Amino acid sequence: MDVPLPAEGDVPLPGGSGWAVVANAPPGDARGSASLAYDSAAPFTPVSVYAFEYPQGMVEGTAPATVYFPYRESGWRRAAVSLAGQRDGLASREVYVGFWWKPSTPFDLGPNGNKIAFLFNGGGDAGGQQFLILLPDGRLHVLPEYPGDFHWRDPNVTATVVQLGVWHRIEWHSNVATGDMEWWLDGVLQGRYHDVRNAHEFDMFQFSPTWGGNTGATKRETDHYWFGHVRVSVRE
User: Fold this and answer.
1) Among the four 94, 204, 212, 221, which has the fewest Cβ within 10 Å?
2) CATH code, 124
């Protein structure tokens, strides 16, 4: 996360990393934006980070921007850069993601919380997605949105309250073939389930940190998410 984020279009990030950004806007836009920023306290990474801004008055149900992997050219052809050889998307039913994340303090979570990241499966209506979210209870939860499975996975091992204003290491692993799905906060296992299945491979990871749901709430203050170093791994 050390290159500028283009402010418009659905475009790859400079440098050929395979990451891209979509639905961004210039800094200060009323609907939010994401931009390259600097934080000397960022762990494990250069001081450059990506800052997502949620301006006061922003209506819930949207993200300031979406930064995603992999970037695929028009027509959703082959991934521009692959993880291992030539892949069509992530092309695996097992994915591990680890990244650094910091929410601002204070943070208006509104009535529905603030999403953090998404894992997508291809397959149209038969596929789906799952997302990691910070809910108003101050804890991390996961919601799979798969056919026949729209059930919250709450922390069932350790329910840590997220400390605002500091950097956290998030890890998230899912194998939709075996059903194993688990997530950690700062090295502490939060939840582990064995029933999160889908017939389709993962094809995309997104930082699309959407605020709220669809109740029409508006931001009472200007808040931020920051993201640092990220790793996405798949198993053959």
Assistant:
1) 221
2) 2.60.120.200
CA dihedral (160, 229, 134, 102) positive or negative: positive
Q: Does residue 4 lie within any of the structural domains?
A: no
Q: Which two tokens stand for residue 214?
A: 């669809």
Answer for the pair 56, 222: CB distance below 8 angstroms, yes or no. Answer: yes
DSSP string, 113-144: -EEEEEEEE-SGGGSEEEEEEE-TTSSEEEEE
221 lies in some domain = no
How many domains, in total, are found in the chain?
Answer: 1
CB neighbour list of residue 136: distance below 8 Å, 6 or more residues apart: 109, 110, 111, 112, 113
Rounded to whole angstroms, the Cα distance separating 164 from 123 reads: 37
Structure confidence at residue 53 (pLDDT):
98
- Is residue 67 within 8 A of residue 207, CB to CB? The reply is yes
Q: How far is CA 233 from the centre of its chain?
A: 15
Confirm whether 177 is domain-assigned: yes
DSSP 8-state code for residue 67:
E
pLDDT digit string, tens, across residues 128-184 = 999 999 999 999 999 999 999 999 999 999 999 999 999 999 999 999 999 999 999
Residue 106, preceding peptide bond in cis (omega within 30° of 0) = yes
Return the number of other C-beta atoms located less than 10 Å from residue 63's C-beta.
24
Range of the domain at 23: 10-73+88-215
- Cβ 72 vs Cβ 86: under 8 Å: no
